[in-house]
Amino acid sequence: MRAVRFHRYGGPEVLQVEELPTPQPGPGEVVVEVRAAGINPGETAIRSGATKDLFPATFPSGQGSDLAGVVSAVGPDATWSLGEEVMGWSWARSSQASHVLVPGDQLIPKPAGLSWEVAGSLYVAGVTAFAAVRAVDPQPGETVAVSAAAGGVGSLVVQLLTRRGAKVLGIAGPANADWLRTHGAEPVEYGEGLAERLEEDVPDAFIDLFGPDYVQLAVDLGIPKHRIETIISFALAAELGVKAEGSEGATTTGILGEIAELVATGKLEVEIAASYPLEEVGAAFTELEHRHTRGKIVLLP
Question: Which domains does the chain have, with CATH numbers?
Fold first, then answer.
């Protein structure tokens, strides 16, 4: 098998694809031949060492949580069959590979209506968006501001909020204004003067998907702290007493299945910004780290 690995902290240049023995499944485990694996900003933070105090790496380290593919080996007591199309997640930082060993209870059937690219990039973004919306508990008619509103997680947050009947203020660059309007949000340009623009219609809740400045802004606007959620600024969230509910609290096959069905039936849209061969993983993360991607970037082993 081939797998993305890194042997030290650093930029995308430390990523390499290595040949490893294909794993053998134990009780309750399966091996999935990966057809698509999404990449995520959290993986950048781990690989660079930015979160090494919270999420240290053990070298050499694999990488990746999102996956979709075909069951290629089945261990004792596993409930899957060879050849089944599945999607799910790995907690072993191992999905960016040609094959991945996972517990069978971390997989769901891939809906026929999902492309491999969408199915393989849905776990982190989907359950994180679900958790963020659940954290602020939007009610019909309320206004919710969302930073990085057109990104991989943000684009799903916007759509989940509008499905709940909320008015969404989508904070993003001007290039994403049309997309936000098309998906029911009111675009609000980030940058200088953002506080003044938001003061014209102070939100009832705020979901931060970008960084600490937005958390502080939400507090300064007077939004109640229990209605402020961040998926990235954990230290500041603890200091200020706002929420920081990420994907872990929403990681269930039931929630992933609910999101997958909404996408498969056209009720949610997932945009694939780019796809790369596994061997070009460094280029994929270089594009991701520009932080202007709309939708998901996917590796195709």
Answer: 2-122+270-300 (3.90.180.10), 125-248 (3.40.50.720)
Q: How far apart, in whole angstroms, are the C-alpha atoms of residue 272 and residue 243?
A: 29
The predicted model scores a pTM of 0.94
- For the chain, give percent helix, strand, coil, nearest 5: 35, 25, 40
Give the mean model confidence (pLDDT) for residues 95-114: 97
**DSSP characters over 57-82:** --SSB----EEEEEEEEE-TT----T
Q: Is the pLDDT of residue 248 over 90?
A: no
How many helices and strands, by DSSP H and E, does the chain display? 10, 14
Q: Please report where in the chains the tokens 């202007």 appear, as a residue.
A: 292
Residue with tokens 């694939």: 272
For the residues of 170-200, what is the DSSP string, one character each? EEE-GGGHHHHHHTTEEEEE-STTHHHHHHT
pLDDT above 70 covers a percentage of the chain that reads: 100
Instruction: Name 251's bridge partners.
Output: none
User: Per the structure block, which two tokens stand in for 87?
Assistant: 């999607």
CA distance 252 to 107: 10
- Distance CA(34)–CA(31), nearest Å, equals 9
44-91 confidence digits (pLDDT tens): 999 999 989 888 999 999 999 999 999 999 999 999 999 999 999 999
